[in-house]
Amino acid sequence: MKTIAVLTSGGDAPGMNAAVRAVVRTACENGIKVYGVVRGYNGLIKGDLIEMDLRSVSDIINRGGTILYSARSKEFATEEGMKKAIDTCKKFGIEGVVVIGGDGSFRGARDLSERGIPCVGLPGTIDNDIACCDHTIGYDTCLNTIMEMIDRLRDTAESHDRCSVVEVMGRRAGWLALNSGIACGATSILIPEVPFDIERDVIQRMRKTMLTDKKHFIIVVAEGCEINVHDLAKEIEEKTGVESRATVLGHTQRGGYPTARDRVMATKMGNYAVKLLMNNIGNRVVAAQKEDVVDYDIFEALNMTKTIDMNLYNIAHEVSI
Ligand code: F6P
């Protein structure tokens, strides 16, 4: 391949810039022309591309967000949108595309690959919900951001003998909630993968710990549980007598400078993706398994299901009491 493109798509995630940098630098070092596509698949539809060189990606390894901007493109899901994107690839001589994003972005990469433009997907999402991948780009940073914010909530909850109910992101997955809940010593962790009962899993657990003189509490709720955390805080206050406050961490979780783990993983994955394209291998998803980087067929990757670590869930249940 002589010319490739790189784009970021879906919700931004810390470490996406490190991945873009690795893609651009690997391509340049191997004599491949590389374009940055602006605003995900929308940029491919509109022909909004920038030719990148070694210096276009200087000083971005430490930055959150994505210098290429991101979008969730509805038009790309239409035949018309797809046709325009393919026309852009032809116009710029693009023979392969590296797509950095989540499973929605991979579906786009699969469709583009099916129509003759080989794509390689890099898992970039805070949700850690890509089945073939242990740790997605952005997950570690987000987890640490949540931990820092819950630590702050703990300070004030402790000072006022309160219960702090915290909603964290993750879309339909409970990875962020489970791991941040453990890292912050939450009394209860509610995740969509495990059926829960507020009376049994929150109220009674709090009452039990109150018998041993516990006076402040952290309850972590994954957004995928679809609970109104403000209502939950009221219910807790009414049933336990503990003054309660709810906090939705929201988009603060997506920003900030990436951790070393995310930067290193993004760099390894970006480099790997270009090597696949250099060998004319497309229609793949790159994944991190333990400390290794591997790749899967996109169809296969999209059909895999990720299950929550029940051992970890049970440890949390046993220890945070
Ligand atoms: O997929 C990343 C994510 O931050 C999810 O955790 C969350 O549900 C969603 O994106 C929010 O999307 P938006 O930024 O479009 O509101």
Which helices and strands appear, and what pairs or packs with what?
Elements: E1 3-8, H1 16-29, E2 33-37, H2 40-46, E3 49-52, H3 79-92, E4 96-101, H4 103-114, E5 119-123, H5 139-159, E6 163-168, H6 175-183, E7 188-190, H7 198-210, E8 217-222, H8 229-240, E9 244-248, H9 260-278, E10 284-289, E11 292-297, H10 298-303, H11 310-319
Parallel strand pairs: 1-2, 1-4, 4-5, 5-10, 6-8, 6-9, 7-8
Antiparallel strand pairs: 2-3, 10-11
Helix pairs in contact: 1-9, 2-3, 5-6
The site of 6-O-phosphono-beta-D-fructofuranose has 10 residues, from loops.
Write structural notes for this entry:
The protein has helices at residues 16-29, 40-46, 79-92, 103-114, 139-159, 175-183, 198-210, 229-240, 260-278, 298-303, 310-319; strands at residues 3-8, 33-37, 49-52, 96-101, 119-123, 163-168, 188-190, 217-222, 244-248, 284-289, 292-297. The chain has 321 residues and is of the alpha/beta class. Helix 2 crosses helix 3 and helix 5 (139-159) packs across helix 6. The longest helix has 21 residues, at 139-159. The radius of gyration is 22 Å and the shape is elongated. The chain folds into 2 domains: 3-138 and 258-303, 3-Layer(aba) Sandwich (Rossmann fold), CATH 3.40.50; 139-254, Phosphofructokinase domain (Rossmann fold), CATH 3.40.50. Bound molecules: 6-O-phosphono-beta-D-fructofuranose.
